[in-house]
Amino acid sequence: xxxxxxxxxxxxxxxxxxxxxxxxxxxxxxxxxxxxxxxxxxxxxxxxxxxxxxxxxxxxxxxxxxxxxxxxxxxxxxxxxxxxxxxxxxxxxxxxxxxxxxxxxxxxxxxxxxxxxxxxxxxxxxxxxxxxxxxxxxxxxxxxxxxxxxxxxxxxxxxxxxxxxxxxxxxxxxxxxxxxxxxxxxxxxxxxxxxxxxxxxxxxxxxxxxxxxxxxxxxxxxxxxxxxxxxxxxxxxxxxxxxxxxxxxxxxxxxxxxxxxxxxxx
Amino acid sequence: xxxxxxxxxxxxxxxxxxxxxxxxxxxxxxxxxxxxxxxxxxxxxxxxxxxxxxxxxxxxxxxxxxxxxxxxxxxxxxxxxxxxxxxxxxxxxxxxxxxxxxxxxxxxxxxxxxxxxxxxxxxxxxxxxxxxxxxxxxxxxxxxxxxxxxxxxxxxxxxxxxxxxxxxxxxxxxxxxxxxxxxxxxxxxxxxxxxxxxxxxxxxxxxxxxxxxxxxxxxxxxxxxxxxxxxxxxxxxxxxxxxxxxxxxxxxxxxxxxxxxxxxxxxxxxxxxxxxxxxxxxxxxxxxxxxxxxxxxxxxxxxxxxxxxxxxxxxxxxxxxxxxxxxxxxxxxxxxxxxxxxx
Lengths: 266, 343
Hints:
The structure holds two protein chains of two kinds. By secondary structure, chain A is of the alpha/beta class.
């Protein structure tokens, strides 16, 4: 049976006076990969940040495993839910392994030393993300793709059952995009991680997700499996494009292989 | 990996302690009244003490050195914290207006109360004990104002923090100047000398007034120092790790304000130490704040003791406020840092 791990109810989030979305409700199913898609500025990152308590909502509730997140300490949340943010930054002289070890923060009691359990999880995170080879390098010496994998490893070191990724493939070349998404897929399949991410590439979204949430102007237009969402009428409504869609004969997921912009509608 | 860092830290610290001892040595032996090391040791160990030596060492030079050391330590620590919190290497307690706030409040205190207290004689030491508290209030008011102006969307905007700090610093500076102009001539001179940062009127009561602040706040800061490492990440990542960012920042910032106020109340505004010491410390021991903090404290100590030595000897018998010496040494380094960040 599929259960809900995160449930947002009537969420309203604002930046200063600008309301990004209001009274938004949605839910995330356990053990699935859910991807939020939509045009720039539609509120998808804001939704991700709100359900991960990075941004405080104006009103409404977020339930984590049916518990109101307001009532859970931020450290306890960090043991269940990790977020890889959109533009992560770290001091350039920081060593890769140390940055990854930061992910152990919510589990650590002693600030001075890492326990053997901590070390074990860090090794595991580096192994899965294939970052072990440059563990002793400084962040400054890494390429964009390597950095993204290191950040992913830090999120993994948090050892959470839920992983939120805000545009994890932006600024990466094609091969690295795929590599990151395959790591995410492996985490989901082998480690039963629930994944929620924001992606711009709808073909990647279709290929790697169980569930899509399509947003526009702060509203959820529709949600469901990729076959249902990657459709002419939905893409027209959400992105205002006339898309040509076929099914990838290799893996059976819908693919948008070409599109034209539609004239602006009011 | 960690071992390497640690040995680097211990080597650096030993060298710094050596430098501090050297600075103390030249400071205590030199002056209008030169003494040999042997004189100093015999006096300190109470072997055939003479009144002259006692007076010079215990009443003039030693309190001055101790205060220089404590002020340097406090400013080095506070500077590290402020730079760590704002993620800005050019931030410094002075730039943030905390010095100016504490300073203005102490000038007000001098203006209204100290003369009265000083007149009643015996309660003079009381006023010295109260001064840091006043300084803290002023620093706190400055900090609250800065918080109000730089608080957006439920968090501290560090960019605005620095801008509003500069504005508030200027405002409080003007206030201090205005009040000091209203003072009697003799008080005015005292206030001006104090404001430009000087410690030559040091005595043991100042030290007594300062020590409790440092004893309480420095351990708090040191315990939280490891968080400064995490604060070098960007906001969402820190929050995602389960760190109560705003709360921890407030604790660290308030503790630093306390330390700064204690320093300002005894020495006036000595700028640049809080800026330079953390930078030098990071060059020496790397980026881990558990190491940077003590190193920066030691560098601050050395710089203030050494600058005070220069302040009392360069134009002897005339004294220059130590703050001016520090500024003369500090400005070029500050400009150098600016050039480097640009490149």
